[in-house]
Amino acid sequence: MVVILYQRGCHKIARNVAADLVKAFADHVPVVVMAAHTPSSWPADVSWDDLLIVMFDSTKFPDAGNLFIREYLEQRPDTAILLPVALDPTAKKPPEAAAAIKALKYDRAAKGPKGRLAKRVGGMLGLRVQGRDTNIFVSYRQTDGAAIAKQLHAYLVSVGHRAFLDEAIEFDDEPSILPGTPVQKQIDNALQKANLVLLIDTPSAPASPWIKHEVDTADALLLPILPLCFRDKDDRKVGPRFPSLVALQRSVPIQKPDPAADPPLNIKQLENIVYEAETYLCEIFQRKCKVPFIVKKEFFSHGFAWKILDQRLLMFESSRSLTPRVRTKVLSHCSVFDPVYGPALKTFEKFLKSTARCNHSLFIYDGELLPEPILNDIVEAQSEPAIILHHQELAALIDSNFTTVVAA
After folding, report:
1. Is residue 280 in a domain?
2. Is residue 334 helix, strand or coil?
3. How does 81-119 read in b/e, with b if 16+ C-beta sit within 10 Å?
4. Which of 129, 156, 172 marks a domain boundary?
5. 353: domain range?
6. pLDDT band at residue 131 under the 50/70/90 scheme
7. pTM score of the predicted model
8. I need a labelling partner for 225 at 20 to 30 A (CA). Which of 125, 178, 190, 322 fits?
9. Cα separation of 150 and 140, whole Å?
């Protein structure tokens, strides 16, 4: 649940923000507006996805509102998500109880269902909804990325995100990764708790076996990766230096800072990194809300039962009995990547090998419909016979009893 706590004079804006959030997340997230000057309690039981937005201006924030914030934080010592929003550009300091978090400025860029505020909320919820902890994993090479990583980690924390900085730097020059070593276990455990990898893609990063291991592990966990590509001004190459991440078609280009610069990044660069990360997480959150909902509804409408096999990996089973002896079982993966990300397809194929046999297996994607030549190339590269389709094509496939899809 999202609660918007506002002080006197901010009611109209709070209502507008609530409407924007409802529209942004297709009514999948309950949003409640509450007055800070009226003593009250959280309007529902404590939940894993609770988020408190505190809207304030230049006037004194009421004591009742500060009490509400403190109680919210105390009741969720490990899971609280707090977002202060400054309505007056001359008064950016949050109320006392929320002072530890840097406020988001409510301006023209913050307004609307696609504005900065909705993306920040979607990013925060996107971290939480993946079923892991709330960490952003910052991956970097010690030789040329340590200062950037530490500055970025501190900034992420300052705006309300939980971040993990890989501290296995003393092993940075190891020639290979030995399975089961303490360092590998530390990395794997941190990635299991993470929801996004911010990869500081510096010139020396591809030479690190640890970063390659982090990328490979993240791909196997369907953990989104956002490469931050640091290049010299005269470097004409674009995109990530890691071949497996090129297919993501998503990265943040950043001019490589002067080695003597302290700190290495300016505030605009930091803000842009966080904006791109939150935009990515918001899109993933929206897909996690939308695609399984559409797929489940379609199967239900055709008389299928619905079962969650792996919530983290978004693996589902649908089954329908036509007669006591004739039963159809379908395994589906609802991808959060746009549109078909190779490592996600490989993870689904691996899942199919490890689970019970089914009649049909579906890899369901979102975004733009893939042109037939591109789809054929993907199909030819498959190791398991899964049907790749857009969720808009699902109804026709079920109506045909899974018989109309023909390989070109």
Report:
1. no
2. strand
3. bbbbbbbeeeeeebbebbeebbbbebeeebbbbebbbbb
4. 129
5. 286-399
6. very low
7. 0.71
8. 178
9. 10
